[in-house]
Amino acid sequence: xxxxxxxxxMVIQAMADQGVKHLFGYPGGAVLPIYDAIxxxxxxxxxxxxxxxxxxxxxxxxxxxxxxxxxVLVTSGPGATNAVxxxxxxxxxxxxxxxxxxxxPTHLIGNDAFQECDTVGITRPCTKHNYLVKxxxxxxxxxxxxxxxxSSGRPGPVVIDIPKDIQFxxxxxxxxxxxxxxGYKPKxxxxxxxxxxxxxxxxxxxxxxxxxxxxxxxxxxxxxxxLGELVKLTGFPxxxxxxxxxxxxxxDPQWMGMLGMHGTLEANMAMHDCDVMVCIGARxxxxxxxxxxxxxxGSKKIHVDIDASSINKNVKVDIPIVGDCAHVxxxxxxxxxxxxxxxxxxxxxxxxxxxxxxxxxxxxxYRNSNEVIKPQYAIQRLYEATKDKDVYITTEVGxxxxxxxxxxxxxxxxxxxxxxxxxxxxxxxPASVGVQLAxxxxxxxxxAGEASVQMTMQELxxxxxxxxxxxxxxxxxxxxGMVRQWQELLHGNRxxxxxxxxxxxxxxxxxxxxxxxxxxxxxxDLDHAIKEMIDIDRPVLFDCVVxxxxxxxxxxxxxxxxxxxxxxxxxxxxxxxxTEEGKMLV
Amino acid sequence: MNANVxxxxxxxxxxxxxQVDVTHTLSVLVDNEPGVLARVIGLFSxxxxxxxxxxxxxxEHAKHLSLITVVTTGTPMVIEQxxxxxxxxxxxxxxxxxxxxxxxxxxxxxxxxxxGKGDNRVEALRLADAFRARVIDATTESFVFEITGKSxxxxxxxxxxxxxxxxxxxxxxxxxxxxxxxGM
Lengths: 586, 184
Ligand SMILES: Cc1cc2nc3c(=O)[nH]c(=O)nc-3n(C[C@H](O)[C@H](O)[C@H](O)COP(=O)(O)OP(=O)(O)OC[C@H]3O[C@@H](n4cnc5c(N)ncnc54)[C@H](O)[C@@H]3O)c2cc1C
Ligand SMILES: Cc1ncc(C[n+]2csc(CCOP(=O)(O)OP(=O)(O)O)c2C)c(N)n1
Ligand SMILES: [Mg+2]
What we know:
The complex is a heterodimer of chains A (586) and B (184).
Chain A: E1 3-6, H1 7-17, E2 22-25, H2 32-39, E3 45-48, H3 52-66, E4 70-74, H4 78-92, E5 97-103, H5 119-123, E6 129-132, H6 139-151, E7 157-163, H7 164-168, E8 170-173, H8 192-203, E9 208-212, H9 214-218, H10 221-234, E10 238-240, E11 255-258, H11 265-273, E12 276-280, H12 286-289, E13 300-305, E14 319-322, H13 325-338, H14 345-360, H15 375-386, E15 391-395, H16 399-407, E16 416-417, H17 428-438, E17 443-449, H18 459-465, E18 471-476, H19 481-490, H20 506-512, E19 516-520, H21 523-535, E20 540-545, H22 580-583
Parallel strand pairs in A: 2-3, 2-4, 4-5, 5-7, 6-7, 9-10, 9-12, 10-11, 12-13, 13-14, 15-16, 15-17, 17-18, 18-20, 19-20
Antiparallel strand pairs in A: 1-8
Helix pairs in contact in A: 1-2, 1-6, 3-4, 3-17, 8-13, 10-13, 11-14, 15-16, 15-21
Chain B: E1 22-31, H1 36-46, E2 53-60, E3 65-74, H2 76-88, E4 92-97, H3 98-101, E5 104-115, H4 119-130, E6 134-139, E7 142-149, H5 151-161, E8 166-171, E9 175-178
Bound molecules: flavin-adenine dinucleotide, thiamine diphosphate (TPP) and magnesium ion (MG).
């Protein structure tokens, strides 16, 4: 479509042309023309949040649960700065977003005008790319290019800063066919020689494993299907990062659970002892590697990643493959199927026996109680009550997040939304708003902590306004539990400022916000209360009062290697677990 | 990265201590658009990389391209990161490691102001001649010399001028180009 329209109209038209159904935003002076354009149409539905950070997290949840680009609209100055945490979160976790920010009129830029801030300057390090639009002629191209950049290659957030005069200006709009940014061409196909070498290495492996991550989710559902196929074909064990959960079904016997700082013993021991590591779409994050010089010392490493800068960043690998997971996995599956050689069945059998021994240690075991709800038990019951439903989980950040990762099991990609890289408390509630909008009929639960949830609590109003029946399941331990756990490890149990003092009455709070509040304090009441929560077709704030002193295990203390985990039931004294040097690394 | 933490206990990725720092010259071909230099410099400062020298200029007006030449130091692993991180920026077309290609010519230009009388003045002129520096400004008590060449030649010249009354130096930074018939 080619016709004359204002810059503001172009913004909405481009979104409609990109298939955008929902836009999360908050109005202000510098975006009023765009709000006027929203008013005049019905294709793109605007969702009014209560804080711009919430808008970005909601768009993240929307994007992660659908694979589409999430869209945000905020005003200049405080609107833009409030969005910064969400943008950084999306950058860290590779979430595709397009965020439109209003800007003061071009002639006032640099003048310290009312609600002016250097949005492109502030967001440069926290976006994949950003633009300041200075001419109306550039706007149609920039709008569409932003969607392309956000969603291709390694996905990420893109900001378009549009001065108010450009929003009023008239120009010719059409959807461009190609983009002049010739420098930007993500590489999808992996180098076939490298892939052949990888298959060769895998065929001769005696103790192989797959270590997969968020990149498989980014690559789309097809990538997860291909991963499943390759894992089945090879018979290798598989573990995943926090960000990759769901790409491979947790119910499968080849699944070892999550790895890393709070991963299972079997996953971490297998990482340490393997001879061939096949890393697909994961980035050797420090929560995974632990002590870098003791990280999987005896293995040859294959690394598939679309972003060359993720390869050899922390850990030197033997076979780097730059490409998209789905493309590379397709080649791997084909080559594995057609090759003549067979892997060493006997060695693989021994390897599985060893893994079985680690599994027998039951590293996720905890001591349950009849008196007080153990947080792990709460997640287990939540899982049992919802596993046969069409369920999506978001989380906040802290112990509850780790317990959710350990005890809620995902069989499909895009069902698990969590803030991994930035670790943003306050992510989960608004994210669940976005997820619920994208999946109106599904059960969407934010597994929360009582401290985190207060960071973006106000978005409950958004859920109420749009009749989004999200469930906020608070594991209320009365502490910033994750902080308290580290204070036990590092600072002699001195709980400096980590007690959640003066908590609101969450049930009354829910009621005041026209949602439903439920409190549960006894293990015996839990199943019934969870059922009640699920059955209510409105937003529910569930105050699950849990053991205040429970800690999250297993755990690789900072400064230690994978084979030096502490287990929950091993009764270790936390005080001595970390060396002086290790204390600096938390 | 925490510098005072031995890497043997590091929980964060630190470069193996066995790696020593090396200096590389990178040619970075970028779209000539506002903010592109800020992106490159922001990347270096934000990620703690070193910039030893930086030059920017438009190369082909019609194609809207600029060439950034940056000299940086780091371990081989960090140098690889820098190249990959630069390559990831949307307006960056190409990153060429001039040091790796091994066939590059590097030059810079400096203007050197020297103040002095008598023997010092004569000696300065004599040395300038030996270094093929040109006099581009003169008063009865000062000279400004223009000198081009490799950085070490310039540094040597400047250090010789120091005892003779060096006032100030203005250097362009390094420009680099590959030998032979092919472009980047
Ligand atoms: C309190 C807390 C504790 C944590 N503890 C743990 C823990 O115990 N274990 C754990 O695993 N994590 C943990 N994390 C999360 C951790 O910080 C990292 O976010 C996470 O490990 C990174 O996951 P990833 O390696 O899969 O990378 P992601 O951040 O998901 O990055 C994806 C990688 O895949 C690449 N990629 C993207 N798209 C594609 C594509 N299409 N094709 C190919 N490659 C692609 C990207 O370039 C990138 O390298 C914790 C976080 C918090 C907040
Ligand atoms: C915005 C933000 N501020 C601070 C932190 C540091 N932090 C990590 S976990 C945590 C405590 C979380 O407490 P809660 O939400 O109650 O979860 P719990 O650990 O008790 O399950 C804090 C303060 C963070 N991750 N994000
Ligand atoms: Mg808590």
